[in-house]
Structures are given as C-alpha cells and as structure tokens.
Write a structure and sequence with these properties.
The complex is a heterodimer.
Chain A: H1 2-26, H2 30-54, H3 62-84
Helix pairs in contact in A: 1-2, 2-3
Chain B: H1 2-29, H2 33-63, H3 68-94, H4 107-118
Helix pairs in contact in B: 1-2, 2-3
Classes of the chains: A mainly alpha, B mainly alpha.
C-alpha cells in the first residue's frame, strides 16, 4: 500500500513539473519564467526524496541540499540581474 | 508499530503532493506575475516541506537511521524559498511589469512617489 501511495505521489509531482514547464515556455514576462524555474527546482527536490523512498536507499539524499542551494542562488542571481543589470556590484557608491 | 509510522508518512506525502499540484494549478491559471508568485512561493514550499518530512519519518522509523540531511533540507527550504519569491516579486515591480487590470490597490507606488518627492 505504501509503495503504491509513493508512486502516486511521484506521478503527481511529475504532472506538477509538466504544468510548470507550460508556464516556463508560455510565460508573458521573464519574471514568470524565473518563478516557474524556481518552482521546478523545488519540485525536483521532492522527486529526489520520493525516488529514494522507492529505491529504499538513502544515498541520493545529498542531492536535496545541492538542488536547494543551486535553485536559491540561481533565483537570486536572476532577480538581481533583471532589476539592476549586473549581478556583482563593484562600484563604491557611498 | 512500523505500519502506523508508514501510514503517518504516507499521509504527509499525500498532503505534500496535493499542495504541489494546487501550486501548479495556481501558476497556470492566475492572471498576474504577483499572484502567480504567491502560488509558487507559499504552497509549493509547504508541500515540499511536507514531502520531506514524510521521507524523514519513513527513513527514521522503518529503516532505522536518523537522516540529518533531510532535516537540513527542510530547514534550508523553509529559510530560502520565501526569500527568493520576495526578491523575484520586488524585481518584477521595479522593472515595471504591469499588474492585472482588475487590481485595486498599489501601496508601493505611493510610497515610491513620496520618497522621490523628498529627494
């Protein structure tokens, strides 16, 4: 029973990623696309967790931290670039 | 006893999946960047935290190892995902993405005008 539930959850998360890919392709502004990318990164974390339950191993759980950090840094970089046009500011404005 | 913990973990996983699907539905159907950002950053975060909590319970009570990485992942997502949503929304406002035409209130506009009047 538990395995069936986990597989249903895998299916639901995959459907969710497909819907987000629709928004990623269609989105009217770039910010929509960035929001969709952030949500895809978060859903991938859930996919990794559910896959490690299905395979009965905890070897893949490091990927959760890695995907979380990469998704966060990517979103921050996109936000700063879209707002200011540069990511790392080097000027010394007081 | 193991079966009870399996049922609890399955409940958490089902709740998380439903919240994730609701978040995707909102991201597809809502009319505006800002409303879509609400859907993406709030309910997706709660759903993924719930799925990870179910995974943690499963590995702790069924397989018997206390997995710190999943707990760290829950904490990290709880910390970072709302911040990322807020930054994207702020960047969209400052680079001039239009609101939905039926929106009724824009408080940040008045605040920005006051700041520019002072300068």
């Amino acid at each position: 029973m538990f395995e069936i539930i986990v597989k249903i959850a895998l299916l639901g998360t995959s459907i969710s990623i497909v819907g987000l890919i629709y928004r990623l392709i269609k989105g009217p502004s770039i910010h929509d696309r960035v929001i969709a990318l952030d949500a895809i990164g978060i859903n991938l974390i859930a996919l990794v967790a559910l896959t490690s339950i299905v395979l009965k191993t905890s070897a893949y759980l490091e990927a959760i931290l890695l995907l979380g950090i990469l998704s966060f840094v990517g979103t921050i970089a996109f936000a700063k670039f879209l707002e200011k046009g540069e990511i790392i500011e080097r000027g010394r404005d007081i | 006893m193991e079966e009870i913990y399996k049922i609890i973990a399955a409940l958490f996983i089902i709740i998380g999946t439903l919240l994730s699907l609701v978040s995707t539905f909102g991201l597809i159907r809502l009319p505006d960047v800002y409303t879509r950002n609400h859907a993406a950053s709030k309910s997706a975060t709660l759903g993924i935290m719930s799925i990870l909590l179910g995974t943690f319970l499963y590995f702790h009570y069924v397989h018997g190892h206390f997995d710190t990485r999943v707990l760290l992942g829950i904490f990290f997502i709880f910390l970072t995902s709302p911040v990322a949503g807020h930054l994207i929304s702020r960047s969209a406002y400052h680079s001039g993405v239009k609101m939905w035409e039926k929106s009724v209130e824009d408080d940040l506009k008045d605040a920005k005008e006051k700041v520019y009047m002072k300068k």
